[in-house]
Design goal:
single chain; mainly beta; Jelly Rolls; 7-stranded antiparallel beta sheet; 3 helices
């Protein structure tokens, strides 16, 4: 088995910047990932990482720093073109392209661009022609143009490909669960305040876009399959749980494009960590498809984000899909290669289980590490080595994997070298590329008295805030204890998830009963049910055999705000507990409005 778990187990970089209120913020960010296969290796180029990750197997990733490159520019794009790997990133100036035959040499040839672009994507067609896509705005379209292969200059005029259509496309609406964050009165007041401020036009327009809550369309990525072009894009805001990727289709690289029936293509509004927007789609060496995109935390800073990978593919009708049903549980990559809709082998064992700790501060109790919410955490009173957190699983289980998730709780630290990079559009920013060690000891017990070591990283030099410990053969365990030695910059350690997975010995849950759905608008439906399971996965789609969208929840109801006006809607509610998954019945929902 080759097992991974989202958020990906990567050494995410710390960055020091100012938030919208002007306060110094310290958090980690990796977002807007471009993932490609180039000369036998897999590469991930994310925003705000000052380099890239590379892997031979898509499970174990290593970091390589980039120098003398625009690493502080958002949405780096990479594209293999023959023997070259092309690179570019967002720029409000005249954009530039770079290329190299070996990404590790730091020898990148620069080719001047012809115009500014934001959220770029270069696509090499099978006939050798190059096409370029870009755009990030609630007002402007996604653009496309052909580029000359030698000069990287436009061939012809740019073409508007599609625009925001949030009146008909529900997932393009901004806000948590697609609900606007502000009332109409509050928007008027904030807009009036902005009108009185003396700020530059770009920042003024960004503030207006933020206040009005119109959804962004951004992050273009082109995939060609069986002669058809699939232009993917992110919507509608990275700081919301509904950040996802839609897709338009065409038989030509510059359109005309039509909205695909299966949308949003990538979408994960629930679970431990939500969000699946602004990403890329890649075919691996074995012909399997994968999608990588941005996952949301957004507590310390609006752009506090992580990366996630999911199995993807094309169905018999050529519809692009992505499987996020159990999208932040341990997954067997080889099993998903054979069947992109394979169910997880190991179930969640830690949700809601009793937690105790050496100490805690009010509001950050031990149970927050077992509530399946990456935005809450246990925080002890001190940063002294030896603070500990223990979970009682309630009975003995066959444990197969444990994911340890560390959080950052507004630490009062300064950049190690005392400097701050200046020039970012959100004010100043500095990224620390030196990995600060995260050290801990993980133990298990059957009785809470005698302990055995599961994993000892008390002397490691690695910094993995979402570390994954896998024991494929399993071990018997009831109690799990994490003792923290140190975390970066001497912070007080915070654990947002001590997540345990394995095999239960009981019965699977009964199927959900009494499933009902009530339309709140043409774009919103509220689904409810009865049951006594640990949790549920609400699946839906535009055909009964295409339930490609999903939402995990730990309640007996959930909203769907990602509908497309005029489409059929089929739903199914699946139940799960420590022992397995029970699928519900498929129900067709009529197209009616409240």
């Amino acid at each position: 088995m080759r097992v991974f778990c989202n958020p990906l187990n990567l050494p995410y970089q710390y960055q020091f910047c100012k938030n919208r209120e002007g306060h110094l913020c310290v958090d980690r960010e990796a977002a807007d990932p471009s993932m490609v296969l180039f000369k036998g290796l897999y590469y991930i180029f994310p925003s705000m990482t000052c380099g890239f990750y590379y892997s031979e197997d898509m499970v174990s990733w290593k970091f390589h720093a980039l120098r003398d490159m625009p690493v502080y520019d958002y949405a780096p794009d990479v594209c293999p073109v023959g023997d070259w790997l092309y690179f570019c990133a967002s720029s409000h100036e005249k954009g530039a392209h770079y290329r190299t035959r070996d990404p590790f040499t730091d020898e990148y040839e620069k080719i001047d661009g012809a115009f500014p672009f934001w959220d770029p994507n270069l696509f090499a067609d099978e006939d050798g022609r190059l096409y370029f896509y870009w755009g990030s705005s609630p007002r402007e379209p996604i653009w496309g143009v052909e580029l000359d292969r030698e000069t990287m200059q436009p061939v012809g005029e740019r073409v508007p490909l599609f625009e925001n259509d949030e009146d008909n496309v529900g997932y393009e609406r901004r806000g948590e669960d697609h609900v606007p964050a502000r009332s109409a009165e509050e928007k008027r007041r904030m807009l009036a305040e902005i009108g009185q401020q003396d700020i530059d036009p770009m920042r003024r327009q960004m503030a207006i876009d933020y206040i009005t809550d119109h959804g962004y369309i951004e992050g273009a990525w082109m995939t060609k399959h069986a002669g058809r072009y699939y232009l993917q894009y992110g919507a509608a805001g990275a700081q919301f749980n509904i950040y996802g990727d839609g897709v338009y289709e065409s038989d030509k690289p510059l359109g005309p494009f039509t909205l695909a029936k299966n949308n949003p293509y990538s979408y994960k509004p629930g679970g431990f960590i939500p969000g699946a927007g602004h990403g890329s789609t890649m075919e691996d060496r074995d012909g399997a498809w994968w999608h990588i995109s941005t996952m949301r935390i957004s507590v310390n800073h609006v752009f506090e984000r992580r990366l996630g990978i999911w199995s993807a593919g094309f169905d018999m009708d050529g519809e692009l899909f992505c499987n996020q049903r159990y999208g932040d549980w341990p997954q067997d990559l080889d099993k998903l290669r054979r069947n992109p809709w394979a169910k997880p082998d190991w179930m969640l064992l830690s949700y809601g289980k009793k937690a105790t700790a050496s100490s805690f501060v009010p509001g950050c109790e031990p149970g927050k590490a077992a509530d399946e919410n990456i935005r809450t955490w246990w925080k002890p009173e001190t940063n002294r080595p030896g603070e500990w957190l223990t979970l009682d699983l309630g009975e003995e289980y066959d444990v197969r994997a444990i994911q340890i998730n560390f959080a950052d709780d507004h630490p009062s630290v300064v950049p190690p070298d005392g400097t701050v990079y200046t020039g970012d559009i959100y004010d100043s920013r500095w990224i620390d590329t030196v990995h600060q060690p995260t050290r801990w000891l993980l133990e298990g017990s059957l009785d809470g008295e005698d302990w055995f070591a599961i994993e000892d990283k008390s002397a490691t030099d690695t910094d993995l805030p979402h570390d994954l410990i896998v024991r494929e053969q399993g071990f018997a365990c009831r109690y799990v204890k994490l003792t923290v030695i140190c975390v970066p910059y001497g912070q007080v350690p915070c654990v947002s998830g001590l997540r345990v997975f394995g095999v239960g010995h009981g019965e699977k849950p009964a199927a959900a009963q009494g499933v009902t759905a009530e339309y709140r608008s043409d774009l919103d439906v509220s689904v409810s049910w009865r049951g006594e399971a640990m949790g549920y996965v609400l699946n839906w789609g535009h055909e009964s055999d295409k339930l490609y969208h999903s939402r995990m929840c730990f309640a007996s109801s959930a909203p769907i705000g990602a509908l497309i006006k005029g489409q059929n809607l089929f739903i199914r509610v699946d139940s799960f507990n420590e022992s397995g998954i029970t699928e519900g019945n498929i129900i067709k929902i009529k197209e009616t409005t409240a």
